[in-house]
Amino acid sequence: xxxxxxxxxxxxxxxxxxxxxxxxxxxxxPAEAVVGRPAADLLAAKPPAEALAARTGTRHGTVALRHxxxxxxxxxxxxxxxxGGDGRPAGYAVTAEPPGDTLAAQAFEQASMSMSVFxxxxxxxxxxxxxxxxxGVPEEGLTGRFFxxxxxxxxxxxxxLRHLREVAETGLPVRYESxxxxxxxxxxxxxxxxxxxxxxxxxxxxxxxxAAYDNNEQYWARRxxxxxxxxxxxxxxxxxxxxxxxxxxxxxxxxxxDFATVDLxxxxxxxxxxxxxAADDVELHRVAYKSTRPGSPGVAVxxxxxxxYRPPAPPARALREGHAILSxxxxxxxxxxxxxxNERAPRGARFREGVHSxxxxxxxARGTTLGVAVCVRLLHPxxxxxxxxxxxxxxxxxxxxxxxxxxxxxRERSTALALQHSLLPSGxxxxxxxxxxxxxxxxxxxxGIGGDWFDVIPLSGGRVGLVVGDVVGHGISSSATxxxxxxxxxxxxxxxxxxxxxxxxxxDLVTHLAAENGREEVAEIGATCVYAVYDPVSRRLTLATAGxxxxxxxxxxxxxxxxxxxxxxxxxxxxxxxxxxxxxxxxEGSVVALFxxxxxxxxxxxxxxxxxxxxxxxxxxxxSLDALADGILKAVLPDQPGDDVALLLVRTRALGADxxxxxxxxAHPAQxxxxxxxxxxxxAAWGLEETAFxxxxxxxxxxxxxxxxxxxxxxxxxxxxxxxxxxxSDTSSTSPHLRRAHAYDEGGRGLLLVAQxxxxxxxxxxxxxxxxxxEQPLPDA
Length: 781
Prior knowledge:
Elements: E1 6-11, E2 16-19, H1 21-27, E3 59-66, E4 72-83, E5 89-97, H2 99-110, E6 114-118, E7 124-127, H3 129-135, H4 155-170, E8 174-182, E9 187-199, E10 205-214, H5 216-234, H6 241-252, E11 259-265, E12 283-291, E13 306-308, H7 314-321, E14 325-328, H8 332-344, E15 357-365, E16 368-377, H9 386-423, E17 434-441, E18 450-458, E19 464-474, H10 476-494, H11 499-516, E20 527-535, E21 540-546, E22 552-554, E23 562-563, E24 568-569, E25 582-585, E26 591-595, H12 612-618, H13 625-636, E27 645-652, E28 660-665, H14 671-686, H15 692-709, E29 714-720, E30 723-730, H16 750-757, E31 760-765, E32 770-777
Parallel strand pairs: 21-24
Antiparallel strand pairs: 1-2, 1-5, 3-4, 4-5, 6-7, 6-10, 8-9, 9-10, 11-12, 11-16, 12-13, 14-15, 15-16, 17-27, 18-19, 19-20, 20-21, 21-25, 22-23, 22-26, 26-27, 28-29, 29-30, 30-32, 31-32
Helix pairs in contact: 5-6, 5-9, 6-9, 9-10, 10-11, 12-13, 14-15, 15-16
């Protein structure tokens, strides 16, 4: 059933001159009982003073009428003046809404959201209290006015007008969101707006209604959550303390602050542990800051400088109390902080004018304070509030964990690097067989220090052992394993094992290490090694590899570098396959390059290490081995190697026949005197008469032992290197050993005498038997 409008016509005297059917249905009074009577006779209570009191313009109000059956009716009425022709109203047309409509009107007026009604020409028709409060203008000051005449000409207001016109023209509802200023609220708010058409009983569109929801708190909550999500992705991308602090600053400015700083405690930037007792005045280092103003004018503390925050400044309170501290302009702590800034950098005082809010939050991770972050607002109109403090603590907590991770990584890296440097040779021993150049570069990646190592080991007979190895993995564990393997190689090399046998023993050691550590898979240790022995007398290089890249060889006058052809054995600890040695005779001046796979690992798809660029770099001409080593690294490595790199370059020398003397000794005691005489003559020819007494005594003891306990043929060899080397070989595999001779023993003192008179001595197994050797220093060494 269609609703009939309740309308009454009242003249200027307050008498009823017209009464509609809708009015009869609403009040129960027929027209004949009302027309011609004062309207006041229908009232159940005296109306408010402002109701129907206006002489011009439309007025709204609520009046209480008495229904015909006696009950009270509270009706929302609207009085529109009727033109009398002389500019004065001739009466009023009063329309009333039934109680249901009154509740709707009350809901409209009292709604917490901003609601308004526009005609189809975008002029205000109605506004509720919330809308008037937002705009800051009463309803009568806006009714009938065009929307754009009542607001500033901004992009958001023009967009609002476009949507009003769209609903008026299409008759379709519109919903959208806008970040716009609210004049009475003195700042921008985030609004969710909904517009829909209003139609009369016939379905004709008569107006456009609007509801605006202030979603400012939800908007900023979403913004803070988005910042936290962004921080999770962008803070801590590197294990670098300073870079992590810079990433935090980049998140804060300009979306959360106009100026922000990060200051860290001194021990955080080093490799030390936190102090046991916190001092009252702690010195902090500025590691990062950023401003919305280019060049950060007015900053009081630059990166790298130090400062001490003292109470009641908010940063000092944040450090002491362990939570975020809010401070606004005018508060004592804020004034103290600002005064300290102005005193430290007076020239920047003018740039700090207008700073109105700040928040200081400690950077705490795992119960330890690392520093403090300070955020300042200058251009942002809103002060920091409690929600900002919660957000700042959450963001600071995440950043602090990343900073602490970076600090711990730096500490572990420093420890591993120190351990590795202590295990690597600090200086290579002097010898005449080879010219040596070496390079070691720890990786610059987040993986940490690896287990690469190299060594040059002096052997008997003027020979030299060369080793380059790599323990898979990074960190202190890899460095410790590397140290154990390096020590094992030196020990095995000291007993003069051939390269293939040495790798076999080293392979067993890795297997035992894995078993000791309770590892199910030996491959978890993952070590590779190449070991070579060079003899300057025979100019022979004997080498074997355990899963390691083969070295490059450059022959003098050759056409570049070539890989040494050799059979690659399995990595250490795998077992099951033998190691095979390769022997080469090298001309003097040959260059051999041994390296770890970090030199070529950055080049994907080339696992065998035979990289053409490395081949060219090794074969390039250079003034010295050191220059060649630098050229190789520069040619093949990126700026930040992803793995450790060890490079060992050697250039071979040869000991000519003029520095080696050899005698075949018949197995008869009478030959000892003959040999002694020949040795004395050779020493005189070399100009080493000063060593004759000791050398002849050593030769006598060693040759006598070979004749008495060894097997012929017996050979004596003297080598003049940086030391004078005496070697006696025979075909017996039984090695001599020192023993303590008793007072009445007729023998057993020979080797003890040799050990006392020489610098070092020993024995080594050969293919034909054994060799006993002794070295003594030369006077001009």
